[in-house]
Amino acid sequence: QVQVVESGGGLVQAGGSLTLSCTVSGLTVDEYRMGWFRQAPGKEREGVSCISWGSGSTYYTDSVKGRFTISRDNRKNILYLQMNSLQSEDTAMYYCAAIRRPGYSCYDVSSVAYWGQGTQVTVSS
User: Which residue, 5, 22, 57, 101, has fewest beta-carbon neighbours within 10 Å?
Assistant: First the structure.
């Protein structure tokens, strides 16, 4: 049984930092790219960042480049998203996702094979 479980969300002031974690089990992570999506109230779910598990290649949407860092622990099958310089626009539910490969976009919800349940990030201004 595939399980994708996020943790680490919370309330933070603008300019602050948070680290999200995602524990993955029941699938061979090398067969996927792992990533983070987010959905703000009233908006569509959007891809934020992803990582190729084997090579470690990373990808970021423009709005988070230079502020967010995605990483993974190969041994423990844990995905991380370090978020710095948080802004009110980053307020959203954040979802961990296993993204099909090859040939699928990191930023397209239709590319996702498995979703986590989400963790809320709220940035107060």
Answer: 57
d(CA 125, CA 117): 26
Q: Measured between alpha carbons, how far is 52 from 64 in angstroms, rounded to an integer?
A: 18
- For 51, list phi and psi in degrees, rounded to 5: -140, 140
67 CB-side CA count, 13 A: 17
Token representation of residue 69: 């860092």
Q: Is the peptide bond before 41 cis (omega within 30 degrees of 0)?
A: no
Query: Across all residues in the chain, what is the average pLDDT?
Result: 96
Pairing of strands 10-13, 119-124: parallel
Radius of gyration of the chain (CA): 13
**Phi, psi for residue 60 in degrees, rounded to 5:** -135, 145
Q: Which pLDDT score, from 0 to 100, does residue 102 have?
A: 87
> In this model, does residue 103 exceed pLDDT 90?
no
The answer to whether 81 and 69 have CB atoms below 8 angstroms apart is yes
Give me the residue label for tokens 């999200």. 20
pLDDT, tens only, 30-73: 899 999 999 999 999 999 999 999 899 999 999 999 999 999 99
